[in-house]
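ugh finaly. both done.
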Amino acid sequence: RSGGAWVRAGVAPASQRRAGGLLGAVGMALALAVPHPAAALAGFALVGLGFANIVPVLFSAAGQVPGVAPAHGIAAVSSVGYFGMMAGPPLIGFIAQGRSLTLGLVVVIVFAVVVAALSRRALAGRG
């Protein structure tokens, strides 16, 4: 995240969200598909790299929504983020216990692709 300021300065927010989601999906797919510790490490690094700038971009956009007080917009995005942090791990664990950890982690790929696919619609008008 510390190197992301220069990315945020030069790339449109929707493009950052799309690229971040795709990078996260590719990274998780790499970690799951290649049975080698180095591939897992590289894959998880790509997941972190892809997701690191999504939160600051969404907070920035939420604070600039016309007709919504910045505090309310940021609070809404923060609430959804906390819900995801609280619901995501149990969902992955539930799937992992019923089927497999690999299938549980496929959930991360699915939601990363959803982020990429909806990147233009997320906070439309904000880039």
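ok and the 2nd:
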Amino acid sequence: MKNLIFATKGFSLVELMVVIAIIAISAALAIPNLFSDIPKYNLSAGARELLSAMQLARMTAIKENSNVVLSFNSGTRSLTIYVDDGEGGGTAEDKVRNGAERLVKSYQMPSGIELLSPSFGQAVQFNNRGIPDLNGDATVRNRLSKTKIVRLLASGHSRIQ
């Protein structure tokens, strides 16, 4: 009687092999779909990075009561935010980080994301009220040549199109 109770507990080797086979087949079908979505997620991440940089530059300009520049470098796929106040012997309001002008933050685009030259040039300056000197579109592109546009409005607000 005791052997009968223990014999019904657990799984047989055949049952375990069937479950492992089902899991392997499901994984084989699901994993390629996951990998094909990675460029789309990276593109969205790049657009959000760009949007965040614009918002941070605007908020910093208001908070610091100073001019803040968001500089684009398409070659290195990076963004730089700095206070353009001429500190440390630099020239104020020239859209060039010189002297000891304080770096607020640098952003690097995610892997596989290209930062295209913005329609408003390589740098935009926000005044102490958060209003940009230029407005227009900045675009990010992934390996599949899909793009997302981040629009900077004349009011200083920005949004992903």
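summary for the 2nd one i guess: Residues 72 and 121 are 8 Å apart (CA to CA).
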